[in-house]
Amino acid sequence: MRLAVNIDHIATLRNARNEFEPDPVEAALLAEKCGAAGIVCHLREDRRHIRDLDLQRLREAVTTKLDLEMAMTPEMQQIALKTRPELITLVPEKREELTTEGGFDITRHFDTLVEFLKPIREAGIESSIFIEPSQSAITLAAQAGAEMVELHTGTYALKTDFAERDKEFERIREAASFAKSLGLKVVAGHGLNYLNIAPFKTIPEIEEVSIGHAIIARAVLTGLDSAVREMIRIIE
Ligand SMILES: CC(=O)[C@@H](O)[C@H](O)COP(=O)(O)O
Ligand SMILES: NCC(=O)COP(=O)(O)O
């Protein structure tokens, strides 16, 4: 199973001061150097973390695979066609949300989705839809012409009751197998972390997991040791 690293929250931290550090592109290159198979960024309509210039610079720098997460809007379609990431992932977006809440409502938006994906496909960009692990959503994703689905693991990640969490995990396993049987590539993501990721190794159909917040949060603490030591060395 491959790891794609989402670097949105490097930009969140950078934007806290609205200056230059930390740089999401530098983070992306470091993640690639350490074995990440791809870099994920979500260009939100409100640009709360990743900004247009970040995306341009990421496109120039990333050599593995750039996955642009975006809402299904004309503006984002133009940006994707201009930027040409290897992959776009369509996600639902609500301006007020703290993070993505649930999968893309593919039943509601099916006709628009079919039209939306045509120029993306013609440009040679792969498309993935971030959906709930349900057979109906997967079937519609395949019918709409997506090459890939990203199964939403946020519900699994938030379950504190083990029996309920196992049940949700089985739903993801069945969804992955069903998606693969339709010829779709399968990715999983949202809310995955160092404690809840291990069971995913038992689902061979999931080729890749996409993880952001947990890795950036861990990096802050594991990196603090050398950051403090380095500063002390300078001032002593
Ligand atoms: C689709 C998904 O689960 C996440 O990648 C999410 O879209 C990231 O966006 P935020 O970093 O704004 O939470
Ligand atoms: N597609 C999921 C993603 O990119 C990262 O989600 P999270 O790990 O930040 O919850």
Structural summary, described in words:
- This protein is α/β, with parallel strands linked by helices.
- It has one domain (2-235): Alpha-Beta Barrel (TIM Barrel), CATH 3.20.20.70.
- It has helices at residues 8-17, 24-33, 52-61, 74-83, 110-122, 135-144, 154-158, 162-181, 213-235, and strands spanning 2-6, 38-42, 66-70, 87-90, 126-131, 148-152, 185-189, 206-211.
- Strands 1-2-3-4-5-6-7-8 form an eight-stranded parallel beta barrel, surrounded by six helices.
- α3 (52-61) links the parallel β2 (38-42) and β3 (66-70).
- The mean pLDDT is 96.
Please render the helix and strand layout as text.
Blueprint: E1 2-6, H1 8-17, H2 24-33, E2 38-42, H3 52-61, E3 66-70, H4 74-83, E4 87-90, H5 110-122, E5 126-131, H6 135-144, E6 148-152, H7 154-158, H8 162-181, E7 185-189, E8 206-211, H9 213-235
Parallel strand pairs: 1-2, 1-8, 2-3, 3-4, 4-5, 5-6, 6-7, 7-8
Helix pairs in contact: 2-3, 5-6
The site of 1-deoxy-D-xylulose-5-phosphate has 12 residues, from loops.
Low-confidence stretches: none
- Tally of helical segments: 9
Helix content: 40-55%
Query: How many separate structural domains?
Result: 1
Please identify the top-level CATH class.
Answer: Alpha Beta
Radius of gyration: 18 Å
**Sheet with the most strands: spatial strand order:** 1-2-3-4-5-6-7-8
> What is the structural class?
alpha/beta
CATH topology-level fold name: TIM Barrel
N-to-C CA distance: 45 Å
Average pLDDT taken over every residue: 96
CATH superfamily: Aldolase class I
Q: Tally the beta strands.
A: 8
**Unique ligands:** 1-deoxy-D-xylulose-5-phosphate, the ligand NCC(=O)COP(=O)(O)O
What characteristic shape results from the CA principal axes? globular
The major sheet is characterized as: 8 strands, parallel, barrel
Secondary-structure element series? EHHEHEHEHEHEHHEEH
Q: What is the level-2 CATH architecture name?
A: Alpha-Beta Barrel
Strand content: 15-25%
Function: Catalyzes the complicated ring closure reaction between the two acyclic compounds 1-deoxy-D-xylulose-5-phosphate (DXP) and 3-amino-2-oxopropyl phosphate (1-amino-acetone-3-phosphate or AAP) to form pyridoxine 5'-phosphate (PNP) and inorganic phosphate.
Protein name: Pyridoxine 5'-phosphate synthase
Keywords: Cytoplasm, Pyridoxine biosynthesis, Transferase
Catalytic activity: 3-amino-2-oxopropyl phosphate + 1-deoxy-D-xylulose 5-phosphate = pyridoxine 5'-phosphate + phosphate + 2 H2O + H(+)
